């Protein structure tokens, strides 16, 4: 029964892909190439993208921006969430004022401000991405801390465990599922924000490359970059973050289902 279901899903997926590619070819035949390039032209552009040192340099710049921004936002969010957990007087300010403000402020606004404050530079891009990602880490880790089992913490204190040992061997492992889920969300959102930040505030990266391609009406490169990002994010989510989230959820007793 499961094999039949898998075959049906595969058949529908193949049919959907065929319809998309067929519709793409039909649209490219009716529209000028600068508006809708055909799939084979995009494939050639993708090949050119991955064989050009210049384009690979832009890809490396974007990967750096994504990686460093996620790391900074995660560490800052963790620190603020832990501060509110252990120093309750800070919670109303951080969770009640600071976090909603960051959530409400549009990402494009941070990008424009960063370009004004830091100029067109990597600093502007990293700052804009970090500020947008910070609420995800802060809110998710706050929920993880709120979900801690108070009885386990009380038992550890009754056995004379120090505060540091409680934190390292009880709090930190209990936060693993929330941390992996947070990183998974941040990774997907970071790519969306990065392109906008690099488009307006960066001097290199895929967003900057898209801006150059737009000025030159090189639509094939724009399609190639977009599809590259979609495939990269999907593969990372499917084969890295999803298994990690499933494994940590199962190991630490949370209800989780692998996608």
Written account of the structure:
The chain has 259 residues and is mostly helical. It folds into two domains: 30 residues; 214 residues, Orthogonal Bundle (MetI-like fold). The protein is 84% helix and 0% strand. The chain has ten helices and no strands. Helix 3 packs across helix 8, helix 8 runs parallel beside helix 9 and helix 9 runs antiparallel to helix 10. The two termini are 19 Å apart.
**Which ranges are low-confidence, i.e. pLDDT below 50, for 5 or more consecutive residues?**
254-259
The CATH class of the largest domain? Mainly Alpha
- Radius of gyration, CA atoms, in whole angstroms: 23 Å
Instruction: Tally the structural domains.
Output: 2
Helix content: over 70%
What global shape is seen?
A: globular
On the 0-100 scale, what is the average pLDDT?
A: 87
Largest sheet features: none
What name goes with the CATH superfamily of the largest domain?
MetI-like
- Give the CATH architecture of the largest domain: Orthogonal Bundle
Q: What is the count of helical runs?
A: 10
Structural class, from helix and strand content?
Answer: mainly alpha
* CATH topology label of the largest domain: MetI-like fold
């Amino acid at each position: 029964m499961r094999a039949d279901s898998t075959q049906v899903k595969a058949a529908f997926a193949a049919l959907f892909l065929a319809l998309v590619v067929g519709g793409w070819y039909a649209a490219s035949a009716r529209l000028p190439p600068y508006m809708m390039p055909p799939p084979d032209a995009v494939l050639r552009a993708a090949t050119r993208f991955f064989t050009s040192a210049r384009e690979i340099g832009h890809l490396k710049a974007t990967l750096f921006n994504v990686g460093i921004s996620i790391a900074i936002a995660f560490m800052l969010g963790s620190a603020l969430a832990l501060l509110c957990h252990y120093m309750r007087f800070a919670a109303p300010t951080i969770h009640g004022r600071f976090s909603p403000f960051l959530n409400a402020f549009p990402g494009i606004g941070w990008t424009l401000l960063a370009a004004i404050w830091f100029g067109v530079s990597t600093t502007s891009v990293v700052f804009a991405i970090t500020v947008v990602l910070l609420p995800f880490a802060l809110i998710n880790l706050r929920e993880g801390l709120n979900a801690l089992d108070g009885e386990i913490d009380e038992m550890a204190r009754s056995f004379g465990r120090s505060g540091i040992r409680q934190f390292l061997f009880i709090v930190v492992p209990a936060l693993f599922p929330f941390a992996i889920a947070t990183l998974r969300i941040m990774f997907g959102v970071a790519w969306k924000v990065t392109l906008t930040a690099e488009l307006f505030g960066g001097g290199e990266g895929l967003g900057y490359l898209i801006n150059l391609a737009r000025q030159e009406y090189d639509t094939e490169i724009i399609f190639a970059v977009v599809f590259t990002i979609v495939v990269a994010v999907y593969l990372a989510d499917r084969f890295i973050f999803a298994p990690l989230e499933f494994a940590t959820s199962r190991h630490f007793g949370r209800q989780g289902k692998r996608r």
